[in-house]
Amino acid sequence: MSGALPPVDPVPASSVAAFDHECDVLVVGFGCAGAAAAFEAATAGAEVLALERAGGPGGSSAMSAGELYLGGGTAVQRACGFDDDPDDMFAYLAAALGPHADEQKLRLYCDGSVEHFEWFRDRGLTFNESLYDAPSWMPPTTDGLMWLGENAWPYNTLARPAPRGHRPATESFGGWLLMQRLVEAAEAAGTARHTDTRATNLVMDGDGRAVGVVAQRYGTPVTYRARTGVVLTTGGFVDNEEMLADHAPVLLGHGKVSDGLDDGGGIRMAAAAGAATRRMSVVQIALTALPAMLVRGLLVNALGRRFVNEDVYPGLFSAAAVRHQPGPYWAIIDEEGYESIPAQDLWGVRPRYVAETLAELEESLGMPAGALEDTVAAYNHHAERGEDPYFHKAAKWLRPLKPPFAAADPRAGFGGNDQEGTGVAGFTLGGLHTTADGAVLNHSGRPIPGLYAAGRTAAGIHGEGYVSGTSLGEGTFFGRRAGRAAAGDGKAAG
């Protein structure tokens, strides 16, 4: 896809005879990070203009499930009977987002989490004070709180477990509601919006300062001058096959979690102006295996072997599978387990193969003879004692599996459509190297004057792991900081 993109070389300010538009802070991209940056910059008194290449704001954020990873003792956590503090939140995330999570940014995020939650409430988002107490990618209810692996081994040994997935008060996908409130807030604070406008190049002055962008609107070049700062919030690069091949080939050939416009444009523009990048190989990976099924059964690889505790956060069992195990992967369950799954948690998933014996199921799945039999025999032996010494699945889910047995195929996707893909989708987490206030750094570690980034355009709190809600959570948290910094930067450049 990147071959079709226009060149991203920076344009000298001296070559722009007159700018078509001027503002103090120019926000490029109007998803969650962009809306948060625009709101804070406008609230600080800056004249703010937000560019969005699509026909309206929202981007991939609006298409997301809408979870916000927040904790430290929010009002919703307290109402649901959970004590939490920033230290426990930090301990869990440092492990789950690691190895190599950015601990400086993560510490700020955890310490500021309660205030950030209240910031969302002040923007008009509501969260029901109830807990969805079951494993799920996304609750089908309006519960305001969910578990995201905090109560699974080994994380429950590292920090006091508390659910931290905060969900806006709407069923299933909630990203649209989140973005509706954030855009309303940004525009009420004074942000102007230019849609159908794709930024293609940074404009740099003779001192190496970012002073604006060149954009395209319906094929016509448009120039924008930013008196104090440019904030890049254009998303990641999962929709750019060339960048994936260069930096994150693990996602090649798999599905993409995006609005189709995450082509790495902001990252490329900044890199062409000398910006450094970090963590470009790090990705979120989602295997369409049903958590409600896995906790009642087993997740196995192509050789019929378990490799993870099935009650862990789904993104972590997904990464463990796709990065380290031979596929295809199978959800193995017995009739009793399948029948015990609440209808709302089934998501239309039905087994692909059913057999009276494990030997028959092995043959259907193309596994080595005896492999799945050995796996289930070992699992049942320990489950009878309420134990899982190999992977430590919680005792509440342990019981021996009995015939008949079934196997569900994640490649069929949710909804039982039987249209085989890979059963894997994801997005990128790496991006521009920034300070905690969003300043974009060059390869010498010095800020590029006037240039900021947040959201998936920047490398944030993540190391090599991911937990739902951290993209929206950190994107808005650090977007706010970038907006404030950009509003106060470069006064002399006016």
Please provide a written account of the structure.
The structure is a single chain. This protein is of the alpha/beta class. It folds into 3 domains: 2-64 and 175-284 and 426-493, FAD/NAD(P)-binding domain; 68-166, no CATH class; 289-422, Alpha-Beta Complex (Flavocytochrome C3, Chain A, domain 1), CATH 3.90.700.10. It is built from 15 helices and 22 strands. The protein has helices spanning 32-43, 59-62, 75-79, 86-96, 103-111, 113-122, 175-188, 241-247, 265-272, 291-294, 314-324, 335-339, 358-365, 371-383, 470-488; strands at 11-12, 21-28, 48-51, 68-69, 131-132, 145-146, 165-166, 192-194, 198-204, 210-217, 220-232, 255-256, 277-278, 283-287, 298-300, 330-334, 353-355, 405-408, 424-428, 431-432, 439-441, 447-453. Strands 1, 2, 3, 8, 9, 10, 11, 21 and 22 form a 9-stranded mixed sheet that branches. The protein has a 4-stranded mixed sheet with strand order 4-7-6-5. The chain has a 4-stranded antiparallel sheet with strand order 15-16-18-17. Strand 21 (439-441) and strand 22 form a beta hairpin. Helix 1 packs parallel to helix 7 (175-188). The radius of gyration is 24 Å and the shape is elongated. The two termini are 37 Å apart. Mean pLDDT is 96; it is low at 490-494.
